[in-house]
Amino acid sequence: MLILVTGGAASGKSVHAERLLCEAAPRGERLYVAAMQPFGEAAQRRIARHRELRKGKGFETAERYTGLAQFIPPRRFEGILLECLSNLLANEMFSPDGAGEAAAGAVMDGVSALEAHCGTLVAVTNEIFLDGVAYPEETARYIRALAEVNRALAGRADAVYESVCGILCQIKG
């Protein structure tokens, strides 16, 4: 089963995604795949906050910034939480180790690979498309690629949720 959770920055999507995964994987065989690279103090604070949220919930953690399709989890898990697609895509697009122009495909291949190693995959992504700001071409390319990934995953997901001001709204499934 694939569940996609989206929402704006600090909308509560991580808390909702963890709850959805814990409900779908009640025995506690859970893997958290973290894609945020710990660049800078702000990123380190967010990572620490997410670790605190997961504490005591039976998650193992794997950090994977690029090449998700080549990642082989140590065993099959009841549930995997991938956080988050927007970080993973940025890493694939802009990191020297990333897939560059093939970034969206690399992310999609990575999601498919994770699905093969679990009963339920919950993937978190971001809504960054509504501000109406004209961005430089490199940023616009990233936004288009994230929209492509989000559309494709929403189309094949069993359930799609959006977190709006901390309220979880079911969109599909």
Please work out how many helical segments DSSP would assign. Answer: 5
Radius of gyration: 15 Å
Structural class: alpha/beta
Unreliable stretches (pLDDT < 50, length at least 5) are none
Could you give the count of β-strands? 7
Secondary-structure element order, N to C? EHEHEEHHEHEE
* Overall 3D shape: globular
Q: Let me know the largest β-sheet.
A: 7 strands, mixed
- In spatial order, strands of the major sheet run 3-2-4-5-1-6-7
Helix content: 40-55%
Q: Beta-sheet strand percentage?
A: 15-25%
Kindly state the mean pLDDT as a whole number? 92
The CA-CA distance between the termini, in Å, is 11 Å
Describe the structure.
The protein is α/β, with parallel strands linked by helices and 173 residues long. The chain is built from five helices and seven strands, in the order E-H-E-H-E-E-H-H-E-H-E-E. Strands 3-2-4-5-1-6-7 form a seven-stranded mixed β-sheet, with helices on both faces. Strand 2 (30-34), helix 2 and strand 3 (59-63) form a beta-alpha-beta unit. The model has no long low-confidence stretch (mean pLDDT 92).
Ordered list of secondary-structure elements with their pairings:
Elements (H helix, E strand, L loop, with lengths): L1 E6 L5 H12 L5 E5 L5 H15 L4 E5 L13 E7 L1 H10 L8 H13 L2 E7 L12 H20 L2 E6 L2 E6 L1
Parallel strand pairs: 1-5, 1-6, 2-3, 2-4, 4-5
Antiparallel strand pairs: 6-7
Helix pairs in contact: 3-4, 3-5, 4-5
